[in-house]
Amino acid sequence: MRLKDKIAIITGGARGIGQAVSELFAREGATVVILDLLPQGQAVADGITAEGGKAEYHSVSVTDKSAVEDVFSQVNKNYGKIDILINNAGITRDRTLEKMSEAEWDAVIEVNLKGVFLCTQAVVPYMKANKYGRIVSAASNVGLRGNFGQTNYAATKAGVIAMAKTWTVEFGKHGITANAIAPGFTMTDMVKQIPEEHFETIKASIPLRTVAQPIDIAYGYLYLASDEARFVSGICLTIDGGTSR
Predict the structure, then answer these.
(1) What would the DSSP string read from start to end of the chain?
(2) Strand partners, 118
(3) Domains, the chain, ranges and CATH?
(4) pLDDT tens across 122-156, in order?
(5) Residues with active-site annotation
(6) What is the pLDDT of residue 68?
(7) pLDDT value at position 161?
(8) Cα distance between residue 239 and residue 221, in whole Å
(9) Which of 143, 133, 139 has its CA nearest to residue 170?
């Protein structure tokens, strides 16, 4: 087991890529703590437990500083450490720049950027005390190349990459690595809503001629969260079928 006896907090772990990460980490021996506002997070945790894994669910917004600090403190108290933080929670509010409202800009910045900031700020003291930590944050290939109608989303994902590089410098001496993952089109609930004809166009634009499944992205998280990646820090691992070549 690649994560045996590790304690992993996964934000946005109730569905999509986050659910795949939660389930994979549990199979690899981690105790998984799912943070999500979606109530199906409890069903994901229960499913992991039913399969013999260890998981718990907390209804927490990553934008709520006091709630984040409280749950991180409780997890550390219960288990004596926090080894892994997966900053996966994120939202979209797509619109072209000229039509994007200030509220749509603020909402995406609040979750995708501030949420990553708050969760990482909360976990670092526990990782420093243990001289060990793996921080992996969800970027996107949109943060590398931009995308029509996603000024807010692209800005946050580029920011996530920059934060990972900064944390590498700040916390490397404490045994903490910080990395980002940039998925391309992945078969989540959001992508499933795309009209068939547009979906086929998207697939044709990807060199591998298919979109990722959530598990494809989860394996990238597993590598960067494992001891196999002990000397990997400050990178953005792109998993998009060759789109950002």
Answers:
(1) -TTTT-EEEEETTTSHHHHHHHHHHHHTTPEEEEE-SSTHHHHHHHHHHHTT-EEEEE---TT-HHHHHHHHHHHHHHHS---EEEE-------B-TTT--HHHHHHHIIIIIIHHHHHHHHHHHHHHHHT-EEEEEE--THHHH--TTBHHHHHHHHHHHHHHHHHHHHHGGGTEEEEEEEE-SB-SHHHHTS-HHHHHHHHHHSTTSSPBPHHHHHHHHHHHHSGGGTT--S-EEEESTTTT-
(2) none
(3) 7-187+214-239 (3.40.50.720)
(4) 999 999 999 999 999 999 999 999 999 999 999 99
(5) 153
(6) 98
(7) 98
(8) 10
(9) 133
What one-letter code names the amino acid at 70?
D
- pTM, two decimal places: 0.97
CA diameter of the chain: 52
Place of tokens 């420093």: 128
